[in-house]
Design goal:
CATH superfamily: Divalent-metal-dependent TIM barrel enzymes
CATH architecture: Alpha-Beta Barrel
Structural class: alpha/beta
CATH class: Alpha Beta
Strand order of the largest sheet: 1-2-3-4-5-6-7-8
Number of helices: 7
Number of strands: 8
Number of domains: 1
Strand content: 5-15%
Shape: globular
CATH topology: TIM Barrel
């Protein structure tokens, strides 16, 4: 069985569910991850785009479904209002996963600042901060709550590694963003201590963060092998997370050979169907080559 390869809604543009089904079927895309870029109403997901079309395989990620009133999802928030809003959003997403038979719900690691939506993706230093130790404690408490809730619905959870750029360092240190290193992710998993919780590795985040903080990105992956449930796949220049397309030369492809069966999500920005198909082929070929080598040996 080939490794399941999904495409993020960020690569597909703003489509209705019917149009999304039609596009994916004609483009030989069998799975889609719905994220903040998707504005499809949740109720529409329970209808096929055509009566004779098979439903798409779906994953649910972070800020989907979009809330009626926008806010910054932060499970580490010191504000009880934001923390409760974040937990409630995740509870709704877990319920949606349960109804749609989606195997897991993934979300971003928390952070130690209060930001507006327009501040994300750029400099975060102007946002009001609170102690990192408070953020860590809040995040672990939120994860314990969500793991208990998800377990009752047989849904797995996955925390995505944060991206740390040099412009967001405070006196040369990562004071703002949780879960950016393998050491802290493992610490979080240990403190939460739930079989429901694993890791979603964003290789674009990893490339930037490894350069910013000066650690080995392959060693990061090696240390998390048993805990990784899925990957977000894109490339960048190592300075900014641009969600660029990737090819055979991209650094992470050889690393994927040990993750046969792990869900792979192409998370580039809106791009052509030809580029999506090429990236899907590159990922599939890379993983299958390793499997064939193992069989031959």
């Amino acid at each position: 069985m080939r490794t399941p390869i999904y495409v993020s809604s960020s690569a597909l543009g703003h489509l209705s569910y019917g149009a999304l089904c039609d596009y994916c079927i004609s483009s030989r895309i069998s799975g889609v991850e719905l994220s903040s870029s998707c504005s499809i109403p949740p109720q529409d997901l329970f209808r096929d785009g055509k009566s004779d079309s098979p439903p798409l395989k779906l994953l649910i990620h972070n800020y989907f479904p979009k809330p009626d009133r926008p806010f910054i999802l932060n499970l580490a928030a010191d504000s009880s209002i934001i923390n409760n809003l974040s937990r409630s959003h995740c509870v709704n997403a877990i319920d949606l996963c349960h109804k749609l038979n989606v195997p897991f719900y993934s979300f971003h690691a928390g952070f130690a600042f209060n930001a507006t939506p327009r501040q994300l993706g750029g400099s975060l230093l102007s946002a009001p901060r609170f102690p990192r130790e408070n953020a860590y404690r809040n995040f672990v408490e939120s994860l314990k709550f969500l793991c208990e809730y998800a377990q009752k619905r047989s849904i797995q959870l996955a925390v995505e590694n944060n991206v740390v750029t040099s412009e967001n360092l405070v006196d040369g240190n990562n004071a703002l963003l949780l879960g950016a290193t393998s050491e802290e992710l493992l610490h979080i998993l240990d403190d939460v201590s739930s079989p429901q919780l694993g890791i979603l590795v964003d290789v674009g985040h990893l490339k930037v963060t490894a350069k910013t903080l000066g650690f080995d990105r392959k060693r990061f992956l090696d240390s998390l092998v048993p805990k990784i449930k899925a990957f977000h796949l894109s490339d960048n220049d190592g300075v900014t997370d641009t969600h660029s397309e990737f090819g055979e030369e991209s650094w992470f492809l050889p690393c994927l050979s040990g993750f046969s069966g792990t869900k792979m999500v192409i998370e580039t920005q809106q791009t052509t169907v030809e580029a999506i198909q090429r990236m899907m082929q590159v990922v599939g070929d890379s993983i299958e080559a390793k499997k064939n080598d193992d069989i031959a040996n």
